[in-house]
Amino acid sequence: MLLEGKVAVITGSGTGIGKGIALRFAREGASVVVNSRTAANVHATAEEIRKAGGVALEVPADVTAEAEVERLFQRTLDEFGKVDVLVNNAYTLANKGEYGPFLKMRSEGWDAFMKANLGALFYCTHHAARIMARQGIRGSIVNISTNGAARAHRYAIAYDSMKGAMDTFTRAVAVDLGPWGIRVNAIRPGPIMTERSPHFAGPRPYRNPGVPLGRVGYPEDVAWAALFLASDEAGFITGQAFEVDGGLLAQGRSPCAEGRPVVTPENIGEF
């Protein structure tokens, strides 16, 4: 019960990685504030937590709007009286031409995408940190970034740039909030399979020969890392970005590009 007695706000926790983190945190004793723009998804995650014996508060809200963020945290204070942990997981598309080849990107897409996502990051972190600082809580803020912040995805210039800014934001805020005992860290997931994938409900693990560990990740893989960073066990860790990618970033090139077979326990033979 690493989070017993703690209150955790997790944005974008109706599905995917955020949901995985919410379920894990609840199992570890946290009172979880479930947030997403879609009320049905928020309710489904909260009900799953409650059926397992956990505590959940449902707060549908669009965290790209500061007024909605203020309502999110006020609801949390009204219900629980404090905030110990914030996980900035929510992510939104502008759908205005921010994806694709750089020469075909549209400036309005870039502007809208950056404003929405970096705005949400600032609003949520600012509100949570002010609550923690005023109440003397030695809290933890965990930002869900991507390994694309360190090594780019093709045609995802806005996305990788935004996540790179998130990593820099993580370091800068960690330094500034250190005197209050508030820790700020980031997680960089690699290939994570979520409900959007047709293979999500299939046999596990789903193989991926391009990853050194030979499989894709799942939301619970990220959740374990988030749990550690949120807990007091990580009390002397701040300003860091942690890879949860099966070793993807560690390798120079994919085995497909190397043109060499991957040596596995099944095919190595005698040694």
Characterise the protein shown here.
- This protein is α/β, with parallel strands linked by helices.
- It is built from 7 helices and 7 strands; from the N terminus they run E-H-E-H-E-H-E-H-E-H-E-H-E-H.
- Strand 6 (183-189), helix 6 and strand 7 form a beta-alpha-beta unit.
- Helix 1 crosses helix 6 (219-230).
- It is globular and about 60 Å long.
- The N and C termini lie far apart (43 Å).
- The model has no long low-confidence stretch (mean pLDDT 95).
Annotate the secondary structure layout.
Elements: E1 7-10, H1 16-27, E2 31-34, H2 39-51, E3 55-58, H3 66-80, E4 85-88, H4 107-135, E5 140-144, H5 157-177, E6 183-189, H6 219-230, E7 241-244, H7 255-258
Parallel strand pairs: 1-2, 1-4, 2-3, 4-5, 5-6, 6-7
Helix pairs in contact: 1-6, 3-4, 4-5
- The name of the CATH topology is Rossmann fold
Query: At the first level of CATH, what is the class?
Result: Alpha Beta
Rounded to an integer in angstroms, the radius of gyration calculated over CA atoms is: 19 Å
Provide the CATH superfamily: NAD(P)-binding Rossmann-like Domain
Q: How many domains comprise the coordinates?
A: 1
CATH architecture: 3-Layer(aba) Sandwich
Helix content: 25-40%
**Structural class based on helices, strands and sheet pairing:** alpha/beta
Assess the beta-strand content as a share of residues. 5-15%
Major sheet, described briefly?
7 strands, parallel
Element-by-element helix/strand order: EHEHEHEHEHEHEH
Question: How far from one another are the termini?
Answer: 43 Å
Shape type:
globular
